[in-house]
Amino acid sequence: MDPARSKLDIRFFVTLDAVARTGSLSAAAKSLGYTQSAVSQQISRLEALVGQRILNRSAGSRTATPTPAGRVLLRHAESLRATLELAAADIDALSRGLTGILRVGCYESVGGALLPAVLDGFTREFPDVRVALTEVADDGELLEQVNGNNLDLTFVVFPLVEGRFASRALARDPYVLVVREDSEIGGVAGPVSLDDHPDLSLITYGPLRSAHSMEDRLGRPGYRGQITFRSNHNTTLLRLAAQGYAAAVLPAMALDDGRAGIVARPLDRVSPRIVGIAWHEDRPLSAAAAGFIRAAEKAAGEWETRTGASFSAG
Predict the structure, then answer these.
(1) Which of the four CATH numbers 3.40.366.10, 3.10.129.10, 3.40.50.720, 1.10.10.10 does domain 3-95 have?
(2) Same topology for domains 102-166+279-306 and 175-271, yes or no?
(3) Which of 8, 62, 156, 222 is the most buried (most CB within 10 A)?
(4) CA-based diameter of the chain, in Å?
(5) What is the pTM of this model?
(6) 116-150 tens-digit pLDDT
(7) What is the spatial distance between Cα 141 and Cα 197, in angstroms, rounded to a whole number?
(8) Averaged in consecutive runs of 10 residues, what is the pLDDT profile of the chain (314 residues)?
């Protein structure tokens, strides 16, 4: 590119367009809020940069009309104006959260039980926002990413770790005992008390923060002696339960609706975990983030309605 042409100023095109629309330098100056000398100077600079006369200005006449070269520039000016309008609209949409990327953290159980329905509802309202998902077993790590501005939102289990977080509760997720379908416990209706089965081998989640710890949740540190295996993969735990290796203690959201060979029984006198969504309290929610929270609330409510009757421990 000619170095001189790199000095083209977008205002030159705006001024040329105004002259072509109004038919004179004085009228263009009035429409733009410039002085006539400023308009004349910008046209002269544009002519110098392109090396062509772009306006016909006859002596003694106040009118100004584009030359063939000027009409070529006007076509480009119109294209440039349309591009700028699109850019302004895109920037406005981005600032209002209607486009761009929404970064969301999740863990496996909520990813399977809620996330498909959440995304289905969200993408209908925000089709131009891409959701970038990050899955980590421990929501404490996800909250650290929110704190470090690497995530906009994350699914969590209450209580949260300490920090400057705002949050919304979504659903009560009861703990269940998953056993082989033909086991003795599997054939008994109603809630199960682990106190009645002190010799039952148990499998559950691996080391996570205490909000996820089965023995802490159940208020029975002594259950650690019954735990024969830990894994943070729901599929592993469910398949081992189906094989009869041990009974799995899991939240209901961890269940695979179509899995055969297992029975899930509610645990007696065990409070459910509270699943929610959190964000940094010092960062305002974008429209997309607020829309994602609404979609999560709706999906969680529907999940509770579907599963509440099945896993009520009374």
Answers:
(1) 1.10.10.10
(2) yes
(3) 156
(4) 108
(5) 0.69
(6) 999 999 999 999 999 999 999 999 999 999 999 99
(7) 34
(8) 59 87 89 90 88 80 85 84 70 67 96 96 95 95 95 95 95 94 86 90 86 67 82 94 96 85 90 94 92 98 82 51
